[in-house]
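Form 7-S
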Amino acid sequence: SALLSDLEVYISGIKVTTVYKNTIQDISGCRHLGIAYEPDTVVSADPETCSKLTCSETAVLETIGCGPLERCQGNNTCVVDTTCTVTGPTVINVHGQLNFIKDRCAYSLVSIPSIPNLYLVANFRDRRREDVSLLDSVILRLDGPGVHIHLEQGGRVWLDNSMLTLESLPQLVHGVQLSQDQTGVTAKLSLSNLNISVFFDGYTAQILLEGPAGSSVEGLCGNSSRSLSDLRLSEYSSTSCEMQYSEPADTTIDCTSVTERCNLLKEAPFSSCNTDIDPEPYITACTDTLCKYPAVDGLNCQFLKAYARACSLHNHAQDGWTSKTGCSSEAFCQDRTCSDHEFCGEKTVSGDTRCFCRAIFSSKYQEINSLGDATVCMQDSASVTLVGCLVEDKRINYSALQLNDPTCRGQVDELTHMVTFSFNSSNRCGTVVTTNNSYVIYKNTIRSQNYSFDVITRNQFQIDFSCVHSQPNIHTATFRIRDCSVAQKISCGAWNYTLIIKAYTDAGRTQVVQLNSQVRLNQRIWVELETNGLDGSMVTVVSDSCWATNQASPTSSPRHDLIINGERYSDCANPADLTVAVEQNGLGTSTLFSFNMFRFTGGSGEVYLHCKLHLCPKEETSCIPNCNAAARRRRSVGSKYEGEASIGMSWTH
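Output:
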């Protein structure tokens, strides 16, 4: 181009005048195979590969084809065809970029702006180490029908709260095709011309997206510009999921050997896929994880298997990779169900599996050297719950444990694998009941079957557990014979029972003293102290002492003893009053004694009785008083107790 003024020239004697205006003219272009092309034109095109060679507006040759997440479908049609892999603590997104998840939260894996009703969620949890989180489950959320499809370890698939039974033939559930084989579970659906396939084997999830060109993907699998905190989903996470933990390094791990194994992805047969799927993110994920987490529970093959499957999704079958690596294509722990606080892992090097406790869950028990929760003590029962996976860590089969009574076995919760041992008033299971000062102690033992008391034992198991109840405090209840009876509810610690006091005028205890009853001096009166709510097979009620006063206060004077608690006459009738008879004491949950009616001289005519009670383990012979009647003497007639009286009674226990 040039800026020219008017120009006159002569051609063959003819004058030619050319007029130029003050303008710039661009005469540049592109040359390809010796041919010149104007800017902004197509040089060549191949519909089968969707590629075009163009001369750009700036006169630059450019090759235009499908985008980095697309493939050519022929006829100049590009479609989205990309894979996201989530394995261990890592996410390799559709751009081949690597993210590490260091907490135990739920994250948005895939969301499509053009399909607002579809979300794919990944949950990360701890396993053998507190400071390493691994992929634990995947949730497919469809807001249109309002359903959640949960893909979990062990091949379990839940539709909201209902478990599904799947086979190799697809089963249609809310527009999602669900199938299961020995390699894992696959969920497929089509929305807005976008085909989505989600594969999960309990440890690795791979998402294949196929659809129209230009489809964008958000979440951990897509747009990497958003921070992890933006993609964290609180509605699927625990409140403490972001808490960070630390543990000492595992000194048994040989990182050099780990690196060599992870680098197998650069060798045959994997190398045939290296040009289409970059192995470096998989190698980094493999080495960084296995240099600090033990290569057990299938993790030694997990990253290799993930790369092999990603290749096969893009028509690069990795024949012979299992023999090369010593791995299996089948899913690990496919048919074992573990509880929420457990994960499935290798029990032996031969590949046997069982449910192990998650590290954070088990740490609270290990800190106190316990295998379960504290004993739950009630008044006449007790229970203790052991954590099944902790017991199995001791190589003990918890289904073979028993209490002192071999017929009393633990009850296993099939959902949580917690094992509960208990006894109650209906079945004591060999519980031993003792006293220590003012305490009643229930004791039993969880032990393995055929437990040996020999000096040398192997693989034996024994846990003692007990409940210690303090004796109820002394309470006072006022009782007047003409009020028929008094019932007082007593609560003290684990003890919760009712004390009922009644007075009768006959030995058969059929004639209760009523409001208008007349009681004569020297008339026989039977007094019963009965309890409701105590376990009569374990404890008895003992009247330590009973005495009478002419006032409601148990410490008032004068005082007359009826049942004496002393070194010589323990829980027995006062030898100074031969009318007193202790008819039942220390045999059950009630006591009974009788005496001839009397009154205090010079008083108000009221007689209050006070009794001190205690509970005694029924197995102890000391519950039954050992009385010595030889020292008793008869009460003389005409003493200060003569006369008529209306009587009342007050009790302490």
